[in-house]
Design goal:
Blueprint (H helix, E strand, L loop, with lengths): L6 H28 L4 H9 L18 H13 L5 H17 L2 H13 L4 E4 L15 E5 L2 E12 L6 E8 L9 E6 L5 E6 L9 E12 L3 E2 L6 H36 L11 H29 L3 H30 L13 H7 L7 H12 L7
Length: about 375
């Protein structure tokens, strides 16, 4: 692994940063506060090929890896446009279909993931299961030459702007540990309903509870094997953590950029406040933490792109944990640097607090990451 990105990756970052600057925080926040979507940015990113950098070339993508897609996600977030559906649609769903889908599914979905003309949400979390994916109760039963799905999912992102949702289910006769079955459910399917969850977060992408009431699907709605096992699921969950880490890194960079610019300009005692160590040192410490977290994210992406799923799983969890902590520190210190201005709408710093605080909870909580590292990295007894 090289600690220096390739010339192609650096060029990709520069191009995406330019696109992000064209829209910026005012566009993103304006859309969020008015209840609109970031359709223009998504469509342009798709036309330019940025949403499909990880899709195989034979299906219209760039043929790159999750590290390339993470770079796109980070640069857009650093420009003030953290697109949550990037974590879900091209990272989780496209990756799972590219790895486990039939040829028909790949031809149907991957070109549209690549050009941004389709969005797909991902549904695993359930109200009574929490972090225990083995307790999910959403079921799929065979019915003639198709399937019937029943169940409920919660905290599912972007359902209202998606064409379909990739549901994690268990077959009706399956007992014991989860061997997930994955199904593509069109959002207009009979028996499929979704209701919004009111959130205290400024974001164009909303959260939903999804209800499946005897939803009938053809047999080819199944992605991969009927009892595909956790490796089939983790093909999407490791990229999810890597992408969440990239988004957190971008938001951390955004917050630090705002803070340092303010600290250079703001004068109270005849000199810019950034000259005072009480302001400068906390910002420097946040910068160090953020750069260390970004390195772990790059390691996770490199391992995943090399096909080392187990190694990537450990690193992706560590990256997500480290970046969440670093991003929270960056935003908190940015608010403190701005003083009262840090909580005004004008400076656009305070609204970042809810977004980064969520990173300690989702897509996997810091406690579950610590459980994973304790058990798998340190060899300690399982605690749950």
């Amino acid at each position: 692994m090289s600690f220096t990105e390739t010339e192609e990756r650096r060029a990709l970052r520069a191009a995406v940063a330019e696109l992000g600057a064209k829209y910026g925080s005012s566009y993103y926040v304006g859309k969020a506060r008015s209840g609109e979507k970031t359709d223009e940015l998504w469509a342009e990113a798709g036309r330019l090929g940025y949403l499909g950098v990880n899709v195989p070339e034979e299906y219209g993508g760039g043929g790159g890896g999750i590290g390339d897609l993470a770079a796109v996600c980070e640069e857009l977030a650093a420009a003030g446009c953290p697109l949550l559906l990037m974590v879900v649609s091209p990272a989780i769903c496209a990756t799972i279909i590219a790895r486990s889908g039939t040829e028909g599914q790949k031809k149907q979905w991957l070109p549209r993931f690549a050009d941004g003309s389709v969005k797909m949400a991902f549904a695993i979390t359930e109200p009574d299961a929490g972090s225990n994916a083995h307790r999910i109760t959403t079921t799929a039963r065979r019915d003639g030459d198709g399937w019937v799905l029943n169940g409920q999912k919660t905290f599912i992102s972007g359902v209202d702007e998606s064409d379909a949702v990739l549901f994690v289910c268990r077959t009706e006769d399956q007992k014991g540990n989860l061997r997930p079955s994955l199904f593509i459910v069109p959002t207009d399917a009979d028996g499929f309903a979704f209701t919004p969850i009111d959130m205290e977060i400024v974001s164009p992408e909303k959260q939903f509870v999804c209800h499946l009431d005897d939803v009938r699907l053809p047999y080819d709605a199944l992605v991969g094997d009927e009892d595909g096992g956790l490796l089939q699921l983790f093909a999407g969950l490791n990229p999810e953590r890597i992408m969440a880490s990239a988004m957190g890194a971008g938001i951390g960079r955004l917050a630090l950029g705002k803070a340092t610019a303010y600290a250079k300009d703001r004068q109270v005692f005849k000199t810019p406040i950034g000259a005072h160590q009480g302001v400068a040192h906390p910002l420097a410490a946040a910068k160090i933490e953020l750069e260390l977290a970004r390195l772990m994210g790059q390691k996770a992406a490199a391992l995943y792109d090399e096909g080392d799923d187990m190694g990537a799983g450990e690193s992706a969890n560590m990256a997500k944990y480290a970046t969440a902590e670093a991003a929270i520190h960056c935003v908190d210190q940015a608010i403190q640097t701005h003083g009262g201005n840090g909580l005004t709408t004008e400076y656009g710093v305070g609204m970042l607090a809810g977004v980064v605080r969520l990173m300690r909870i989702a897509p996997v909580s810091r406690e579950m990451i610590l459980n994973f590292v304790a058990q798998h990295s340190l060899g300690l007894p399982k605690s749950y």
